[in-house]
Amino acid sequence: MGGDNTPLSNTLASVLDNLSTTSSGTLFGIVAATGIVAATGFALTFGQAEVKGKAATELLKGTSLREDEVKEHWEEYDKYFQQNAGEGVDEKQKAPKLVDTFYNLVTDIYEWGWGQSFHFSPAIPGKSHKDATRAHETMIADLLELKPGQKVLDVGCGVGGPMRAVASYSQAHVTGITINDYQVKRALHHNEKAGLKDLCTVVQGNFLHMPFEKESFDAAYSCEATCHAPKLTDVYKEIFGMLKPGGLYVSYEWVKTPKYDKLNPEHVRIVDAICYGDALPEMRTYLEIVDAAKEVGFEVVEERDLALPPAGPWWKRLKMGRLAYYRNHVIVSILSFLGLAPAGTTEVHEMLYKTAISLVEGGETGVFTPMHLLLCRKPETQETPAVAASA
Questions:
Q1: What domains can be seen in the chain, in order of their start residue?
Q2: Nearest to 197 by CA among 231, 168, 219
Q3: Are the CB atoms for 154 and 174 separated by under 8 Å?
Q4: Interatomic CA distance for residues 322 and 368, integer angstroms
Q5: Where do the SAM-dependent methyltransferase Erg6/SMT-type domain residues begin and end (predicted)?
Q6: What are phi and psi of 314, to 5 degrees?
Q7: Closest by Cα among 176, 258, 184, 254 to 217
Q8: Per-residue pLDDT for the chain (391 aa), expressed as one digit of tens each?
Q9: Is 166 in a helix, a strand, or coil?
Q10: How far is Cα 332 from Cα 330, in angstroms, rounded to an integer?
Q11: pTM value?
């Protein structure tokens, strides 16, 4: 270390860049130092890391929120998503706006500590988390029976992790929609970097009112995304309208399982905490998603909980990340203290950690699953509504 005259703040920034881009396979899986000196020493000792994500010093910068707005929007989110003892939030119709706010607050932190696929996957013995995630995503293509050149809709695409897996695996053309403009920018960046910009495109919009021609997609999917909808039938109806007759739709849904007991205060607490920390206006049951799909006209081909044995625990990665969280929290706290991260960043990071604990509890008790499979088909022919027939 002797003879290095680099200013400490610049050295810290370089260290955080290195640490933020090293994947450790846990939600908060960045091997971080416990202070400025330790962080500096780590980087100078171990050198450069493979660049995989956004720099830690850039957390929550570049979103549609100005830096001085982060804390204000965090407080708005915090107030709105307080849960009502298992009944969700008040004024559910306001959820899309606050979901947009949520992803302005968490997208960087998700990418920084989790990766580009904002979802869970069952653990597979002998396979890395990366491989398990890829298998979970390519299964979507298999379920949809995709063929090269088909047009596929990704409903709630985030920064496009599943999109790129589905497109590269099937050679189908995937169009993603996300309500968050910042995620569009990140997804386009990743698509180009992966050499998939000709197969993947992303638009900004509300999946309750999609800006596409009716019956313009061969297939559609949503990967842990429609749980954000204020009313599930509204988003399912919109997806139904986008599909060509005979088109398949597959969704991985967040639901309460048969083990959930609404009279058990512990079950209610766990589910409420998950909804609060993940911007869900409410948590549906596994039966409600099936009923919603049938109500809008879908034929339900298959539905089952992909988290059940022989699948390995999807929450394993979260549980392993508890210690790493504290190391990351030091980084976030230092960045906030030095003014390198906007005010409110620490609160958002703490919320995500507490939510991770609740997700683990949901998995271990079996009252919650983030991967209830719903496979549906739009009928080849549809009955003409009586009102339309008499018009």
A1: 58-378 (3.40.50.150)
A2: 168
A3: yes
A4: 20
A5: 102-379
A6: -70, -20
A7: 176
A8: 334 333 333 333 343 344 444 433 333 333 332 233 333 333 222 332 223 455 555 555 556 667 778 888 889 998 999 888 888 888 888 899 889 999 988 888 888 778 899 999 999 988 998 999 999 999 999 999 999 999 999 999 999 999 999 999 999 999 999 999 999 999 999 999 999 999 999 999 999 999 999 999 999 999 999 999 999 999 999 999 999 999 999 999 999 999 999 999 999 999 999 999 999 999 999 999 999 999 999 999 999 999 999 999 999 888 876 677 777 778 878 887 887 777 888 888 888 888 999 999 999 999 999 999 999 999 998 664 443 443 3
A9: helix
A10: 6
A11: 0.82
CA separation for the pair 59, 23 (Å, rounded): 16
Give me the amino acid identity at 361.
E
SS3 79: helix
Question: Which of 102, 21, 115 has the alpha carbon at shortest distance from 63?
Answer: 102
Q: CB–CB of 292/105 below 8 Å?
A: no
Which residues have CB under 8 Å from 4's CB, separation 6+?
Answer: 11, 44
Residue 243: beta bridge partners?
Answer: 217
Q: Which amino acid is at 99?
A: V
Amino acid, res. 199: L
Q: What tokens appear for 268 in the block?
A: 């209610």
Backbone angles phi, psi at 312, to 5 degrees: -80, 160
By three-state DSSP, how is residue 116 classified? coil
Contact residues for 18 (Cβ-Cβ < 8 A; gap 6+): 43, 48, 49
User: Which of 252, 255, 240, 254 lies closest to 294 in space, CA to CA?
Assistant: 240
* Token digits of residue 356: 């991770």
